[in-house]
Amino acid sequence: MPHTIGFVDNSNGQLAHYNMLQVIRDFAAANSWQVLRYDTTLENRELILKGVGYSGTEEIFVGFRTYHNVDADYYNLVAGGFTGYVPGNDFDHQPGAALSGVPSHNQRVDYWLTLTPQRIALMMKVGTPVYESAYVGKCLPYARPSQYPYPLVCGGMLTGAAATRFSETVHAGYFKGNRANMKLRTNDGWMQPHCYPWGNDLIAGNAISSTKTNLRDTGGIYHLLPIELHDNSANIWGTLEGVFYITGFDNAVENTLIINGETFVVVQDVWRTGHTDYYALRMDT
Amino acid sequence: MAYYSGTANDMTAVRSALVAACTSEGWTWNAGEEVLHKDTMFVRLQLSGEYLRLLGRTGLTTGDAPHVVQMGPFTGYSGTPLPALDWPVGYELFVFEAEVYCIINYNVDVYQWCAFGQSTVDNLPGSGMWLGASGNKAATGYSYGISISPAGGGSSYSTNVFCPALFWRSGGGTAAGHATESLVYSDLDTHGWWWGTTYNCSNIGVDALKPLVNILPNDWNSEAILLPIRAYKARFENRISLIADLDHARYTRLDHYTPGQVITIGSDRWKIFPWYRKNITGRDGFSWRGNHTGTLGWAIRYEGP
Q1: Which among A171, A204, A164 is positioned nearest to A270, based on CA atoms?
Q2: How far B185 CA sits from the closest chain A CA (Å)?
Q3: Positive or negative torsion for Cα B185, B186, B192, B197
Q4: Does A259 touch chain B (CB under 8 A)?
Q5: Which pLDDT score is estimated for B198?
Q6: Residue A167 CA neighbour count, 13 Å, CB half
Q7: Which of A100, A124, A118 lies closest to A49 in space, CA to CA?
Q8: What is the ipTM of this complex?
């Protein structure tokens, strides 16, 4: 499964975030995701997709829709994860809907969009710029399919479709975990996972003491750590696919690295450039 | 690569079996120096009474690690003594291209181990040789017993404890007083075998995996997954760097595994061992004066019958 890197703007007579939705739709449809809905007649346009997973027989329901407010000057996407699809229901009322806003723009947006048969991951460079991320689809579960058939993740930047512009400075990425914009579907329903190594004071601490350190490179090599989804008390469920912790030590957003022939792009958390504010996004092939 | 097993009547026989297995898999034994070596990996295997002491080196006779690690007849704390090392013992050897694991089992449920190999982490200035064993330094009894917990091990109360788990200890440092059970020749910051920025700097240990070890086994499916065994070195300005990431061993919890059990995950098989002795009621081990390791344990890739 491939990736695509490019930009959208409002040059073709529609707002950039509409064009971003169009890119997701076209790219997913061209790569084995079934388009269940793409409704551009609505002010808040809707895209609902179905993936078949690595088995080729699964039903993975995800989607994106737009929302904006011209007077408030925000133009966003919403990432959605669902447990089914009902044609008569709107986006937000699909079965088991989990939603998380992703600030976008009505002007130029650079994007890195990458997908596998079971998940879609997106990074957008917006405005000043800041970097906004989303992940919808399955994680890689530590369980057999018969034990845990639907390990769906819905990760974005905001709690639901919040009225928040990209310039707002509080919102933060799903990948850090333990926040409302990161949801994991367990067998018991949606929960808010922690994301190791965030939360570990030695790998992702604030470097103020010998017990609060953070990771740096090893001889110039940047080793990626899987992001493990857990509840911090009694359960570990799995790991994000193609999304890895990377140190920000002597590193910068949009850097690329190649490991075993795979290319990764370094992504920062909105405006943050601390040593623990980055992840590496695999450009799927 | 290869799996060997058998019984041994003394530590000499354990060493002989280990050397024989390794030399069958590409290692060279220098009997005069008592050094087993392959490429840039050098480990001296020295017998001292009933103890087998391993000393990491960077050459046949050079670059000694700060101290040895060992297997042997540890006695532990008088109030909670360790089971005597009764011979013969069963041994199991897991020999891979650049990782070697040796397990001995006696008194039904007691295990000791030693292991060595080469780090797979790229760009270490040092050889990446790593080694470990149940016991740290050349002690003969560890009068304050075992110190281990899901968050680390090594006691601030006493230097005369051991934390019988690979890359696990979080208390103590490289120096002999608080010697560790595991060492890596990373040579980052030209620090050789040191774990930290000073000779006696505390270890990172299993703390870097927190809270994952503590979580297992899962409530939701009662299973303990296998967690990576990684080692980190403390650097200047409160940074750490990855210096080892083992290919053929993993941490796990034994609440729902039997010592010696083989589990299958996909096409891989793993053999489960406690770090010393399983105890389900004291599953998190001891801060000191311990005589078991709770349900803390590990899995080694198994290619046996």
Answers
A1: A171
A2: 13
A3: negative
A4: no
A5: 81
A6: 6
A7: A118
A8: 0.94
pTM listed for this prediction: 0.96
Q: What is the pLDDT of chain A when averaged over all its residues?
A: 97
How distant is the Cα of A156 from the closest Cα of chain B, in angstroms? 24
DSSP H or E run through B249: strand B239-253
**How many residues are present in chain A?**
285
Cβ-nearest to A203 among B124, B208, B234 = B208
Torsion sign (Cα): B216, B221, B223, B229: negative
Determine the structural domain holding residue B28 and report its residue range.
2-301
Measured CA to CA, the distance from residue A29 to residue A63 in angstroms comes to 12
pLDDT tens-digit profile, chain B (305 residues): 799 999 999 999 999 999 999 999 999 999 999 999 999 999 999 999 999 999 999 999 999 999 999 999 999 999 999 999 999 999 999 999 999 999 999 999 999 999 999 999 999 999 999 999 999 988 888 889 999 999 888 866 677 899 999 999 986 655 545 688 999 999 999 999 998 888 777 789 999 999 999 999 999 999 999 999 999 999 999 999 999 999 999 999 999 999 999 999 999 999 999 999 999 999 999 988 999 999 999 999 999 99
Say whether residue A223 is in contact with chain B using an 8 A CB cutoff: yes
Question: Do B218 and A212 lie within an 8 Å CB cutoff?
Answer: no
How many structural domains are present in chain B?
1
b/e sequence A107-119, b meaning 16+ C-beta within 10 Å: ebbbbbbbbbbbb
Q: Which of B202, B218, B283 to mutate to test the interface with A (most CBs of A within 10 A)?
A: B218
Which of A199, A213, A219 has its CB closest to that of B238?
A213
Q: Is A233 on the interface with B (CB under 8 A)?
A: yes
Non-local CB neighbours of B101 within 8 Å, separated by 6+ positions: B93, B94, B95, B113, B115, B248, B249, B300
